[in-house]
Amino acid sequence: MARNILIIGGSYFAGRALVEQLVRVKEFQVFTFNRGNIPLNINGVTELHGDRTDSTSMKDNIPAMEWDALIDFCGYTPDDIKSVIASVPGNLKQYVFISSTSVYDHDTLLPMQETSRTIDAPQPELGDYAEYGLNKINAETLLERECGHRSISWTILRPSIIYGRFNYAPREEYFFDLMEKESPIVIPENTLALFTFIFVEDLAKIIINCIGNKRVFNQVFNTVSKEYISYKTYLETLEQITEKKIKAITMSVAEIIKKKIPLPFPIDHHQIYSGNKLYNALRFEFTPLFDGLKKTYKFHQFLMDKKRGL
C-alpha cells in the first residue's frame, strides 16, 4: 500500500530536492501544499494550493487522508506549527519539522550537540533575522507538546548551512558569480573560523530515511556533515572543482564589516555541530564537500549557459 506524504512548502530548494527524490520511490504518494507561486510540474506530484496560516484554507484544500508523514519546510513560528497540526484534515502519523542550528546559543562548548544550550531571547545583532532562532526553538517546543497531546510521532531536524541546486540564499552563488567575473574574493585574515555544511540532496535522503522510522521518533537531530570547513579550505575546494585560480584578498574582520562585504559564512567565530546522533541512528554517509560543490557548480554552469542561449 502506498504511503501518503504531505509536504508543506516543497516548491523550491530543499523542498524541491525532497520531492524529486520521493517521486522515484514507488511506495510514496507525494502531495505538496503551498501558495502555488512556483509550480513544480513534476509527474507523480499532487500540488495543493493554499495558505498555511489560514485554517479554512488548509481544511478546504487538503484532502482528509491517512498521512504517513508531514514534512514541514516553512514553519517559522509556534503559530505556524499550531495551525498545521490543528487544521490538516485526516489522520497524521508523523510530523517531520525542518528547524535550524540557529536555535543554539553559540557561546557554548563545541561542537554543539542536540543537548547544547539554546537561545532564550532575540538576537538583535542579526538585524532582520533577530527573531529567527528564537521562533524556531519555540516552534520546536510547541511541536513536541502538541504532537504529544495528539499521539503524533515527531522528528526535528536541525540543518546547518545548506547548499546545492536551486539555493535561493546568496551562498555558493556569491563565490560562483565573483569567479565568473574573475574578481578577487575577500576572506577574513583569521582563517580559523570553521563551519559545517549539509548538501541539499543529503538532507532530502535523510528526510526519506526518517519517514516511518521508529529510531528517529520523538527526537531532535543536528543534520550536518562531518567536515569542518574554513574560508581557506572552501576556496581551495572551489579551485579544485573549477580548475580556476582564485585571487584571494585577506582583510580584518573590522574592515570586512566596515566595507559591508557580504560574506555568506561566519567571519569571526566557529559554527560547528556534531552530527553523531543522526549518524548513529541512520548510519548515513554524507556527501563530501568536494563532490557536492562539484554538482552544484555544474548546475550553475548549466543555468548560465541557458541564460546565454547556448
Any overview of this molecule?
By secondary structure, the protein is an alpha/beta fold. It has a domain at 3-166 and 197-224 and 273-287: NAD(P)-binding Rossmann-like Domain (Rossmann fold), CATH 3.40.50.720. It has 10 helices and 13 strands. The strands form 4 sheets. The protein has a 7-stranded parallel beta sheet, sandwiched between helices. Strands 4-6 form a two-stranded parallel ribbon. It has a two-stranded parallel ribbon with strand order 9-11. Helix 7 crosses helix 10 (289-307). The model has no long low-confidence stretch (mean pLDDT 94).
Q: What's the short story on this structure?
A:
This protein has 310 residues and is of the alpha/beta class. The protein has a domain at 3-166 and 197-224 and 273-287: NAD(P)-binding Rossmann-like Domain (Rossmann fold, 3-Layer(aba) Sandwich), CATH 3.40.50. The chain contains 10 helices and 13 strands.
